Amino acid sequence: MLDKLAQNIKASRDNTFVAQDANGNIVNRTEGVAFAGGAAFSSEEGYFAAKVMRTLGVVYIEQQARV
User: Fold this and answer.
1) How many whole angstroms separate alpha carbon 12 and alpha carbon 63?
2) DSSP, residue by residue, 18-57
């Protein structure tokens, strides 16, 4: 199950990765993956999850830990 999840994330990231924007600025992001965390996360878990997603280049990150 974890292998399938990793394969899907990699495929989506590879297909939607943007290295530069229209102005030629380096952005290194993926617009095909999003992350939503919930209130069950502790602050540390939310921080770690956000760091992992940012490492993958995800820009659409939402979680209740920020409130």
Assistant:
1) 21
2) EEE-TTS-EEEEEEEEEEE--TTS-HHHHHHHHHHHHHHT
Name the CA radius of gyration of the chain, rounded. Answer: 13
Convert the pLDDT of each residue in 16-50 to its tens digit. Answer: 999 999 999 999 999 899 888 888 888 888 889 88
Question: Of 6, 17, 8, which Cα lies nearest the Cα of 58?
Answer: 17
Amino acid 66: pLDDT? 58
Contact 37, 55 (CB under 8 A): no
Query: What is the phi-psi region of residue 29: left when phi exceeds 0, alpha when psi lies from -120 to 50, beta otherwise?
Result: beta
